[in-house]
Design a protein that fits this description.
Blueprint (H helix, E strand, L loop, with lengths): L1 H8 L2 H20 L1 H27 L6 H13 L6 H17 L10 H12 L17 H15 L3 H21 L2 H4 L7 H12 L10 H22 L4 H22 L5 H9 L10 H6 L3 H17 L13
Helix pairs in contact: 2-3, 2-4, 2-7, 3-4, 3-5, 4-5, 4-6, 5-6, 6-12, 7-10, 8-10, 8-11, 11-12
């Protein structure tokens, strides 16, 4: 048991769990432990139990719901600490459910925490203080957030994504400050917005299931997220402008993966993409499911290759290469 715990804590999810726990422990006294603890603890437990049962139903084995725990921690640390405990709890459970309601072949499309927090804004009129980013603590604590975030971003190999986003984000607002009223964007460069954007870029944007792996794709995604966040701030003026940006980046990444796998481009691939997204329980991939997700051009080749293999037994194919997509 202890070996499994040690092994988990060495993984990116385990390390992120430690980082979030440390940040929460540092920030909680300033917000009030009695204020923070109920929502934080109940949300984490509730989300974990829900995901535990879903994983059990899908995989037929008991598995620690590490993703749900991380999602609940992020939700609780972004929402206003003074919100009732049930707001963070319901939002966290909704975030976990969204992973299975809007899902591609092997991963959730949207960052679950971001999607649920935006929904809570309209359902509960919930505020966002980003207290987990240490905004009310002395300035030197920003170094703690920065060091922890850079460590996580490096471990998940998302440094280009972070740099591209922050560079484009601050460039857009800096240009706006020179060509328009600087007072309108001055808050972007002050507390608590600086802490919030660093927490977002280093710990939310870098979510592996919903972000690209190749450096070139990370740069494109980072610029898209920055541009959409800027647009929502400037023209919509909503408090969740950063989270709206990451959802746009999630859609782009899900489309890119689908297009690369199926070979379908816009607009032809739109129908395939929409069919692929839907409720899915986690399970081991099966050949029939994989074949259903392949574009007609690739599906025909794969079916012919399989028929040849079945007809020739162990002799294999000559001049034909079958690649699992």
């Amino acid at each position: 048991m202890w070996r499994r715990v040690k092994r988990f804590l060495r993984t990116p999810k385990g390390l992120l769990t430690i980082v979030l726990a440390v940040l929460a422990a540092i920030a909680a006294p300033a917000e009030g432990i009695r204020t923070v603890a109920p929502g934080f603890a109940i949300a984490t437990i509730a989300a974990g139990l829900v995901d535990l049962l879903i994983l059990r139903a899908g995989k037929k084995v008991w598995e620690f719901p590490s993703g749900a725990v991380l999602t609940a921690m992020i939700v609780a640390m972004v929402l206003r600490a003074q919100e009732p405990w049930y707001v963070a709890t319901i939002t966290s459970v909704a975030a976990v459910l969204s992973k299975y309601l809007v899902r591609s072949r092997s991963a959730n499309v949207f960052n679950p925490a971001a999607l649920a927090i935006i929904a809570s804004f309209y359902v509960f009129h919930a505020g966002q203080s980003w207290w987990g980013a240490l905004p009310v603590l002395p300035p030197f604590t920003l170094l703690i957030l920065l060091a922890a975030g850079v460590f996580i971003a490096d471990r998940v190999n998302k440094a280009p994504l972070v740099l591209a986003f922050l560079g484009a984000y601050f460039l857009l607002f800096t240009v706006t400050a020179f060509v328009a009223d600087p007072q309108w964007v001055a808050e972007i460069f002050r507390t608590p917005d600086v802490q919030a954007v660093l927490f977002f870029a280093l710990l939310i944007l870098t979510d592996p299931p919903t972000s690209p792996t190749r450096y070139s794709d990370q740069i494109v995604c980072g610029v898209i997220v920055a541009a959409v966040s800027y647009a929502f701030f400037e023209w919509a003026g909503v408090v969740y402008y950063l989270l709206a940006g990451v959802l746009a980046g999630n859609v782009w990444e899900a489309w890119r993966r689908n297009s690369r796998r199926t070979g379908c481009t816009f607009p032809r691939g739109a129908a395939t993409f929409l069919r692929e997204i839907g409720p899915n329980l986690p399970r081991h991939p099966r050949h029939a499911r994989e074949m259903a997700d392949v574009a007609p051009c690739k599906q025909e080749v794969a079916l012919r290759a399989r028929e040849s293999v079945e007809g020739r037994g162990r002799r294999g194919l000559v001049g034909v290469r079958c690649i699992r997509i």
